[in-house]
Amino acid sequence: MIFRQLFEPVSSTYTYLLGCEVTGKAMLVDAVLPTWQRDMAVINTLGLTLAYTLDTHIHADHISAARKLKQETGSRIAHPALDNLSCADIGLAHKIPLNMGSITINPLHTPGHTDNHFAYAIDDRVLTGDALLIDGCGRTDFQNGDAPTLYHSIHNQLFTLEESTQVYPAHDYQGRHVSSIAQEKMRNPRLGSNKPLAEFVDIMDNLKLAYPKFIDYAVPGNRECGVCSPNVPEALQQYCDQIRDSQQG
Questions:
Q1: 196 and 139 inside one domain
Q2: Model-level pTM greater than 0.85?
Q3: In contact, 8 and 62? CB cutoff 8 Å
Q4: 132-133 and 136-137 as β-strands: parallel, antiparallel, unpaired?
Q5: Same domain, residue pair 116 and 200
Q6: 83 and 132 belong to one structural domain
Q7: d(Cα 233, Cα 134) in Å, to the nearest integer?
Q8: Domain range for residue 196?
């Protein structure tokens, strides 16, 4: 399997490129609108053809590139079926595999950050979206988030994976790239060392995070698989702008 981790700096989002060396097909997980051209440049350089885009959930901090990539390449949009998006070509369901040549994606329903959040397990790694981050986890105070639900999702779906499983999150804000299930079970300050549910809920209830500055545009736009509203204020246009100067971003 060809695997690349690509970074979008405005929202600190990791996009993941998976390529099948047998069929020459590729998929992008959590592609971000301003960097779609960069992602396609990488795919083309590798001699691959984009077949699918997947999102882990309806994002609140960026616009998905799924719709744009479908328009440009004919790729198919795969998305958690529970969100019931009319723009999705494939509805993903818990533990029902999605196959692309030699690559098998195992979707895992991991609600709590959002009610319909999914992680994707592939061989010896798992793309955890916003559910499990490196030394952290996604917030639970919007989009039907719920701290006890997230706790159980992580413990019952992610922490039951092999401890050697590599953890690739959708975001990191400190320049880290990868963790492991063993590391998160041991040292995650919110969830590790068998931290009890009540303590986790107390931590999440007292984060006192600011209201996400792009959520009011991102959520409705992502329910359409990636549409940036014409009403986005100038100060937030960087979330919508296409790459102008270089296909390498």
A1: yes
A2: yes
A3: yes
A4: antiparallel
A5: yes
A6: no
A7: 32
A8: 110-209
Q: What angle separates helix 36-45 from helix 66-73, to the nearest 10 degrees? A: 50
CB count within 10 Å of CB 99 equals 9
Rounded CA separation 64/32 (Å): 5
**Averaged confidence pLDDT in the chain:** 94
Tell me how many domains the chain contains. Answer: 2
**pLDDT tens digits along 99-150:** 999 999 999 999 999 999 999 999 999 999 999 999 999 999 999 999 999 9
199 & 114 share domain: yes
Give the tens place of pLDDT for each residue, 63-87.
Answer: 999 999 999 999 999 999 999 999 9
- Pick the closest to residue 168 from 112, 130, 113, 111 (CA basis): 130
Sorting pLDDT into bands at 50, 70 and 90, what band is 242?
Answer: low
197 and 227 fall within a common domain = no
CA angle 133, 238, 171 (to 5 degrees): 5
According to the 3-state scheme, what is the secondary structure of the chain? CEEEEEEECCCCEEEEEEECCCCCEEEEECCEHHHHHHHHHHHHHCCCEEEEEECCCCCCCCCECHHHHHHHHCCEEEEEHHHCCCCCCEEECCCCCEEECCEEEEEEECCCCCCCCEEEEECCEEEEECCEECCEECCCCCCCCCHHHHHHHHHHHHCCCCCCCEEEECECCCCCCCEEHHHHHHHCCCCCCCCCHHHHHHHHHCCCCCCCCCHHHHHHHHCCCCCCCCCCCHHHHHHCCCCCCCCCC
